[in-house]
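Handoff note, outgoing to incoming analyst
You'll be picking up this chain. Sequence as last confirmed:
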Amino acid sequence: MVTVLQERAEQRVLDCGPARKIRVAGRTLTVTPVFDTYWRFAAARQKVYEARLAGGAGPFTDDPILQRHRFTNCFRAADRVSQDLIGGVIYRGEQAWEEVFFRTLLFKIFNKTSTWRLLNGALGEVRWNAYDYRTYDRVLSQAFSAGQRLYSAAYIVPRRSSARSASTRTTCGCWR
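Most recent structure output, in case you need it:
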């Protein structure tokens, strides 16, 4: 399906003559229709995000693709889960590099704020120096057995087997 942005980019290519060159970080790049469309699409997504943030009434664009489908934010740090990671995981708690590293990796394994809250609620402050595999496994397995979703679907890479398990053996069993 051709988007409105692609149609506009194709028309500009027909109208603009020889390919433009731009310089980014010391490298010279040729502006192609794909390059142009990508950045126009990113800019259009950012405008939609800013309009939603401002509380405007939609539709926020005339592009049917952007009207019908959800896309990630142009700036990763702007999404809700990334904000939770930054403010509630990375900058909260002890700031020794081992603690920040452990909290960040553990959060990103699940990439789900509710799982982070579950662990903190059941175990107190999540800390590397107090990590115990069996305790974490018990908490997560109980929640999984009760039907709680532990993982975000945003970045899941499916395993080869279809077996589902809450066991952290596949994720943090190698720790300690």
